[in-house]
């Protein structure tokens, strides 16, 4: 498998400040023209998980999930979620993960993950993500499929 990132642009430009603005806008639900449908809303005394989806007519489906953890520092949670090697130990859907590229100037990362969900065949994902820290110790992570990433499966 090959991803030709250097042929089409810099890794640091894959997940941009515009993506962060888009994420914050959707978190704040400013866009009244879009209709979001509740998918799940679960809570207990340790956490609250909410997921919803938006099905625009002329665009791909969008999903938004928010998890609020009680009695957990933002830094601990950030380190837990962003450690993809450790994720293989606790996330039973992750079969394999490897880092393909990392831009140290802004932290944008490209990774390849194979996930296996019950009753489905394993699926491979090539994703780019970037983490931002807000002034109030709020962390934002934006994940997307690199638009330029051409993937070829090579069988030996």
How would you explain this protein's 3D organization?
- The chain is an alpha+beta fold and 156 residues long.
- The chain has one domain (10-25, 35-150): Alpha-D-Glucose-1,6-Bisphosphate, Chain A, domain 4 (2-Layer Sandwich), CATH 3.30.530.
- The chain has helices at 5-8, 17-28, 74-82, 84-90; strands at 2-3, 36-43, 47-54, 62-69, 94-102, 109-115, 123-133, 139-144, 151-152.
- The protein has a four-stranded antiparallel sheet with strand order 5-6-7-8.
- The longest helix has 12 residues, at 17-28.
- InterPro entries: START-like_dom_sf (IPR023393), START_lipid-bd_dom (IPR002913), START_lipid_transfer (IPR051213).
- This is START domain-containing protein.
Order of helices and strands: EHHEEEHHEEEEE
Q: In what order do the strands lie side by side in the largest sheet?
A: 5-6-7-8
Helix/strand structural class: alpha+beta
CATH class: Alpha Beta
Q: How far apart are the first and last residues' alpha carbons, in Å? A: 11 Å
The CATH superfamily is known as START domain
Rg, Å, rounded: 17 Å
Number of helices: 4
What is the approximate shape?
A: globular
* Mean model confidence by pLDDT: 83
Strand content: 35-45%
How many structural domains does the protein architecture include? 1
